[in-house]
Amino acid sequence: MAALPPYPLPDLAWFPPLADLGDVAGSPDDDARPPRQLLHGDFSSKNVRVARARWRIFDFDDCGYGPVELDVANSLYFVLFDAMTGGDREGYRRFREAFLRGYRDRSGSAATDPVLDRLITRRVLALASWLADPDTAPAGIRTASPAWRTTLDGFVQRYLAAEH
After folding, report:
1. Which residue pairs, CB below 8 angstroms and at least 24 apart, start in 86-94?
2. Per-residue pLDDT, 20
3. pTM score, two decimals?
4. What integer pLDDT is reported at residue 17 of this predicted model?
5. How far is Cα of residue 28 from the mean position of the Cα atoms in its chain?
6. Cα torsion at 29, 35, 39, 41 (round to 10°)?
7. What phi and psi, each to the nearest 5 degrees, are found at residue 57?
8. Other CB atoms within 10 Å distance of the CB of residue 26
9. What does residue 56 show for φ and ψ, rounded to 5 degrees?
10. Which residue numbers in the chain have pLDDT < 70?
């Protein structure tokens, strides 16, 4: 990988601009902003295969650059979606607590709950905007069945009602 020339990638396509999240994003010209790294963009167990103790991670079509907190928040977002559509908010709370404890212990990151919560809310608002204007949405939402869009919209409505 080190021998490959740099390839410019955009910020994560699924995530709205982060200018108002200065403690995570910084300004585009700010050298003091937190380090940015390659992020998967939709990492889940569906994008991992393990064979003979070797891990293969694939489906990088949503990848881009950003602060690591974006991938952490996105992972939590997917678990929250499953919990809210499956009626298991307590399961989400337990998962989040254990996941973040392990993440913070292993990474040394001080990713704070308020920052992660704001990022999750931004992710939900991005979904809401795509549902309102599917032409701007990623392919998975543009081509989703009406039933799946109803499920997505129900999640957005429940999340927003719980947050306010």
Report:
1. none
2. 45
3. 0.73
4. 53
5. 20
6. -60
7. -110, 130
8. 17
9. -120, 120
10. 1-36, 163-164
- Cβ atoms of 127 and 156 closer than 8 Å: yes
**Runs of H (alpha helix) within the chain:** 68-86, 89-107, 113-132, 139-142, 146-163
State the amino acid at position 105 in one-letter form: D
Closest CA to 13 of 137, 129, 141, 148: 137
**Residue 116: count of CB within 10 angstroms of its CB:** 20
Q: What are phi and psi of 139, to 5 degrees?
A: -55, -40
For residues 80 and 83, give the distance between their C-alpha atoms in angstroms, rounded to a whole number. Answer: 5
Do the beta carbons of residue 21 and residue 12 sit within 8 Å?
no
Helices (H), 10-88: 68-86
